[in-house]
Backbone:
């Protein structure tokens, strides 16, 4: 039996503690907040998207950074295992659109309560308001934790599950990166991910609050396509957000952080080819042939978008539609299929769902999550250089890596 000290009482820390305790270890969780699972509480807009019920290929394809590293842990503790676990500890689940898995109650607090209940059942000791200042090793082996009050807690193993840099109000302030560096680990460049993006164009604030559904979004670096997907997005006072943009940020963030400007091209009518859309626009014009252009396109766009599209079309708003040339109409059709803006920068960590970057995975054993540099030190969750798309995939990384760490300590 080992004495296992876990730093951080979020998703990965709680999960690791349960499986470390199931192995007969004495387990202590140190959490600097007043309660466990603060970030878990706000995930999935307060409903907690616990995992994704997709097949394994989709699971791996949804990991943006270092998916190969997760081979052992994903197969060692699958998304189905996660669902079975939560059901077995009294948390009924449901599967929604996009295979997203939520508690049937729609309350993230029920996920936290179920985990806390199971921690207590397994005899895990929880220490709240306890800030860990240092993780101390000597001769290549973990020795003790030094707390902010000066206390030293000795143990046989330590699992660091302190999260990343996103949602810093929940306590994710990068402590784990500091501990890792002090132990000799490399921490890759950190940046916000799954985050809204700012745009350059002056018309964007006019569209604030407008949500576009069923649009095709492409992000281009010159002619190179970096991202292409179909779904929903939202305009804000500073730029763009919503599911498509949040996912896109995981792929384009590094380029934006290097100061590169990218183009976003939105197909507002992806269900129609250019020819079909031209016929539709022509029909609108014929039905409104005596009207001015500005009053003849109401059937094509949401009201907030109309003045912007009129302005970008280059067609005189007062012009009667029956004298609009074929060339002008075709340019207008092209604009609808290629509504472009310039992406300038990511919003910061305060608005990011997760962190891109973290402890270099080459320095971690992928089967056990143990450090290759310091015996008895393990890492799990967002503190590692692993990140995925929205839809429950990042929590699956937390559960699988936490299980690997917790269940491999004896």
Residues:
């Amino acid at each position: 039996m080992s004495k296992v000290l876990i730093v951080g009482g979020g998703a990965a820390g709680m999960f690791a503690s349960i499986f470390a305790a199931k192995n007969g270890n004495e387990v202590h969780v140190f959490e600097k907040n007043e309660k466990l699972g603060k970030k878990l509480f706000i995930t999935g807009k307060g409903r907690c998207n616990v995992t994704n019920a997709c097949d394994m290929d989709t699971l791996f394809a949804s990991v943006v950074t270092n998916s190969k590293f997760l081979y052992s842990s994903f197969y060692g503790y699958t998304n189905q295992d996660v669902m079975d676990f939560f059901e077995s500890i009294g948390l009924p689940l449901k599967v929604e659109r996009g295979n997203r898995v939520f508690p049937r109650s729609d309350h993230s607090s029920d996920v936290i309560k179920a985990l806390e209940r199971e921690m207590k059942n397994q005899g895990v000791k929880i220490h709240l308001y306890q800030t860990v200042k240092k993780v101390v090793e000597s001769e290549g082996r973990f020795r003790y934790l030094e707390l902010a009050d000066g206390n030293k807690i000795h143990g046989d193993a330590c699992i660091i599950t302190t999260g990343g840099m996103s949602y810093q109000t929940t306590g994710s302030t990068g402590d784990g990166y500091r501990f890792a560096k002090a132990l000799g680990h490399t921490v890759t460049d950190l940046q916000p991910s799954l985050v809204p993006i700012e745009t350059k164009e002056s018309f964007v604030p006019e569209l604030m609050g407008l949500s576009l559904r069923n649009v095709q979004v492409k992000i281009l670096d010159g002619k190179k396509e970096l991202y292409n997907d179909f779904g929903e997005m939202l305009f804000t006072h500073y730029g763009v957000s919503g599911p498509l943009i949040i996912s896109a940020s995981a792929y384009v963030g590094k380029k934006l952080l290097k100061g590169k400007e990218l183009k976003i091209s939105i197909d507002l009518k992806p269900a129609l080819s250019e020819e079909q859309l031209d016929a539709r626009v022509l029909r609108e014009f014929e039905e409104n042939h005596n009207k001015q252009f500005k009053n003849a396109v109401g059937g094509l766009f949401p009201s907030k978008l109309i003045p912007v599209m009129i302005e970008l079309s280059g067609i005189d708003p007062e012009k009667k539609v029956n004298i609009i040339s074929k060339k002008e109409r075709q340019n207008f059709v092209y604009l609808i299929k290629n509504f472009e803006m310039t992406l300038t920068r990511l919003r910061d960590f305060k608005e990011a769902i997760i962190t891109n970057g973290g402890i270099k995975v080459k320095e971690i054993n992928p089967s056990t999550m143990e450090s290759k540099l310091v015996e008895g030190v393990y890492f799990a969750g967002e503190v590692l250089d692993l990140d995925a798309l929205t839809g429950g995939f990042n929590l699956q990384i937390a559960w699988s890596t936490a299980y690997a760490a917790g269940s491999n300590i004896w």
